[in-house]
Design brief:
574 residues, alpha+beta, Uridine Diphospho-n-acetylenolpyruvylglucosamine Reductase, domain 3, eight-stranded antiparallel sheet, 14 helices, 19 strands, 20% strand, globular
């Protein structure tokens, strides 16, 4: 299910419904938390002037500011005072909240047993938590949305988890002329606040529960990326809590400005992956080509409405030749129409699911949208001797984007991926077909997935950001999910065998070259560092970072010289 951190559509298309608002109340005891009035400041000590939408009207009235068209105008007075911050809250093993906080990861295979979980509400609180961990020698990890595919925050040696989930504000900073997104905000929260507040958006992933913290730093992409590029292509600045050689924790703001002495730290957060250089507390976003100070013009505008289609072929009507034809039609069409403003994913579900599905969406208001959709569906099904079931519907963009798609939260999951420069060969398609026939109902809802990449993502040089895969045409993804621990070996063996055999010509992994761009760091896969499953002789970091890895190593050596932020697949210092 790569839409959690990337762009593929959900397995089961459901008619989107309005996202329900969720009220959250937090009860804390005096022994485990404190609430203080404070304002985070920039590294220079100058207060960051941020005005939230919900507090704008009262703030502008109190300060004598001006609201024009519902937007905060430059030159008006800033909001006075600071709202009380959340936390910090310390939860230890005997606390009734401990189980909730240690089992909130998406993948049910991994449950951590840290000594404590620190819920934080500001960068200053992160600094204090990191300082405590360094002083006491506790191995630490950080969690925002909890969608990590491997046990990075849940590793057995992690003694402190810093939980960012309550740091979820989205606001506009008129000083930097950029939108501020705290690292614990989910994609659904971000899209809703940006759109309802200013009519803008970010081209991130399509699962609304993914947290910004890891999604952005890994170089997230989504359904609008063909038009607007990766989310990091709009990243202006990042605030990071780092630890120097003496063990002192501090917060640093790094921007993309050419003369910023911290620019290398900004660059590392444009695809360098989470848990490598420090803890992100917040991001600032402004498109590079944006000018002026009107917030409504500083980020991309989403479509007004989305035209969506779900097209399904029953496995009972599909033989191996028809299966191959569907895949060839899909990859051929997209290679022949690289500029088409259309996002589509082909879900090659296991036979136990009963169907193969194509999910398509495009901007309803683009010229010829209806004809483009109809022609595309016809082209993918051309020559396939089976009549698909087709549903086409139109929804307002925000409602469709923030709907809670069906997911696998709580299941035991194993996921693997590869970014393709060219389509699968006939031999690879035969391997996928064979594995999708193996076993029975226990493989529901497993499968393989192809989704479009390219477009504006490919318009950026590979070294301009740490997200190096600017030459990929497709994203391929493999996933299996199950419920019981005693089924682990069966499902792990199935998906590892599928992935190995698809990439048999390159040592069981997608070695960068004519066929592959490598693989995406947000889809962490510990098997890539295991010589049993990676027999290519190509190290895991070359698959994720390619030629950008030496530069990431230099950033690591400068900003995390003590190796405080580390895990199985973390960047090693130069």
């Amino acid at each position: 299910m790569p839409w959690r951190n990337g762009s593929s559509p959900p397995r089961t298309v459901v008619a989107p419904t309005p996202a329900r608002s969720r009220a959250t109340s937090t009860s804390t005891s005096s022994s485990s938390s404190t609430t203080t009035n404070h304002c985070d400041s920039q590294e220079s000590g100058t207060p960051v002037n941020e005005v939230t939408r919900r507090g704008f009207l009262s703030a502008s009235a109190a300060a004598g500011g001006m609201a024009v068209g519902g937007l905060w105008q430059p030159g008006s007075a800033a909001a006075g005072g600071c709202a009380p911050s959340f936390g910090p809250v310390t939860v230890r093993t005997r606390d009734p909240r401990y189980q909730e906080l240690t089992t909130r990861a998406y993948n049910g295979r991994f449950v951590g047993r840290p000594d404590e979980v620190r819920l934080v509400g500001s960068a200053d609180q992160i600094v204090r938590a990191v300082t405590d961990a360094v002083r006491t020698g506790k191995r630490l990890a950080v969690r925002s949305g909890g969608h990590c595919f491997e046990n990075i925050p849940d590793a057995p040696d992690v003694r402190m988890v810093i939980d960012l989930s309550e740091m979820n504000e989205v606001s506009f900073d008129p000083v930097r002329r950029a939108f501020v997104v705290e690292a614990g905000a989910t994609l659904g929260q971000i899209y809703r606040k940006l759109f309802l507040g200013w009519g803008v958006t970010l081209p991130g992933g399509t699962c609304p529960t993914v947290g910004a913290g890891g999604h952005v730093v890994g170089g997230g992409y989504g359904a609008l990326s063909h038009r607007y590029g990766s989310v990091v292509d709009h990243l202006y600045a990042v605030e990071v809590v780092v630890v120097d050689r003496s063990g002192q924790a501090r917060k640093v703001v790094a921007t993309r400005e050419p003369d910023d002495p911290h620019r290398d730290l900004w660059w590392a957060h444009t695809g360098g992956g989470g848990g490598n250089f420090g803890i992100v507390s917040r991001y600032w976003f402004r498109s590079p080509q944006a000018r002026g100070s009107d917030p409504a013009r500083l980020l991309p505008k989403p479509p007004v409405t989305l035209r969506q289609a779900s097209v399904s072929w029953q496995w009972a009507d599909i033989d191996e030749a028809a299966f191959a034809r569907l895949i060839h039609n899909y990859t051929t069409w997209h290679r022949e129409h690289p500029g088409a403003d259309l996002h589509a994913g082909l879900s090659l579900l296991h036979r136990a699911a009963g169907e193969i599905r194509l999910d398509v969406q495009l901007d309803e208001e683009q010229p010829g949208a209806e004809q483009l959709m109809a022609g595309y569906i016809a082209a993918i099904g051309a020559g396939v001797p089976a009549t698909p079931a087709t549903q086409v519907f139109t929804w307002p963009w925000l409602r469709a984007t923030t709907s809670l798609y069906p997911g696998l939260s709580g299941y035991r999951i194993k996921s693997k991926s590869a970014l393709l420069r060219r389509p699968w060969t006939d031999q690879q398609i035969a391997v996928v077909h064979r594995y999708l026939q193996q076993g029975g109902a226990e493989h529901y809802p497993s499968g393989a997935y192809l989704s479009t990449f390219g477009g504006q993502i490919n318009a950026v040089p590979a070294n301009a950001t740490a997200m190096v895969h600017r030459d990929a045409a497709f994203s391929s993804f493999f996933e299996t999910a199950w419920s019981l621990p005693e089924e682990d070996e069966h499902h792990l063996s199935w998906i590892r065998g599928l992935y190995r055999d698809v990439h048999a010509d390159t040592g069981g992994v997608p070695v960068p070259g004519p066929a592959y761009s490598g693989t995406f760091v947000n889809y962490l896969d510990a098997d890539l560092a295991d010589p049993v499953w990676n027999t290519s002789g190509t190290p895991w970091h070359a698959l994720y970072y390619r030629e950008n890895y030496p530069r990431l190593q230099q950033v690591k050596a400068r900003w995390d010289p003590r190796g405080v932020f580390r895990h199985l697949l973390s960047v090693r210092p130069a």
